[in-house]
Amino acid sequence: MVRYGAIDGRILAWQPSTWPEALPKWDGTLPAILRKVFEESMLNEIDNVIADAGGNLEHRGHVVTIALLCSLDAISSYGYGARSGQQIPDFIAAHFPGEYHPHAKAVLHLYRHAMVHSWNLFEAAITPGAEAVTSNNGVLCFGLLHLSEAVRTGMNDYLRKLESDPKLQGPTLKRYRKLRGSAKD
Q1: Does a structural domain hold residue 82?
Q2: Whole-angstrom distance, CA of residue 28 vs CA of residue 33
Q3: In the predicted model, is pLDDT for residue 14 greater than 60?
Q4: Which domain holds residue 165?
Q5: Residue 166 in this model has a pLDDT that exceeds 50
Q6: Residue 124 contacts residue 140 (beta carbons within 8 Å)
Q7: Within a domain: residue 155?
């Protein structure tokens, strides 16, 4: 039984013991490492669930949405601090497609908090498709597949900016070191 570790040189889902050691200072390798961690242990796994649903997320929406919001929380915690989700609006404003920017705080409160902590949406809506962000009669709504693409777009933009932005590099390296250091070998 494999409790943790690498198989065929691949990083397994959230197994910090398999991640490369963090170097003492920024050397430019971390964006590629994080891409591998984010894609292989989060976003690709969520994409697999979406694909397994055969395009019908009507009865998988809560589970997929919660997974996406948790991945957004995790990804954003690297460059913006692990602040119980409070970093999400900053991340959305900096890295998500523009249509999400005016709704960054609402994504945290109306979606992340409501879905993760209450398993429901009380003042917002989400559809199982790729519908763009809308606001009708004060109700914010977007499609689950649209959110999935926005999370991936945000991750890609963050990793691209991470390559040259010292304001992102310091906190990102610190977060990576902390998580890697928590690994039980």
Answers
A1: yes
A2: 10
A3: no
A4: 29-121+149-175
A5: yes
A6: yes
A7: yes
Question: Would 44 be classed as within a structural domain?
Answer: yes
Distance CA 116, CA 45 (A): 18
- Residues 6 or more apart in contact with residue 54 via CB below 8 angstroms: none
- Asked if residue 3 is part of any domain, the answer here is no
Q: How many CA atoms lie within 13 A of 116 on its CB side?
A: 16
Instruction: Tell me what percent of the residues of the chain surpass a pLDDT of 70.
Output: 90
pLDDT in tens, 85-125: 899 999 999 999 999 999 999 888 878 878 787 777 777 88
Per-residue pLDDT at 119: 78
Element spanning 34, H or E:
helix 30-38
The helix or strand, by DSSP H or E, that contains position 62, with its residue range, turns out to be helix 61-80
In the DSSP assignment, the letter for residue 102 is G
Q: How far apart are CA 146 and CA 68, in angstroms?
A: 11
Cα(73)–Cα(112) distance, integer angstroms: 9
Number of domains in the chain: 1
Q: Residues in the chain, how many?
A: 185
Residue 5 pLDDT = 44
Is residue 31 within 8 A of residue 162, CB to CB? The reply is yes
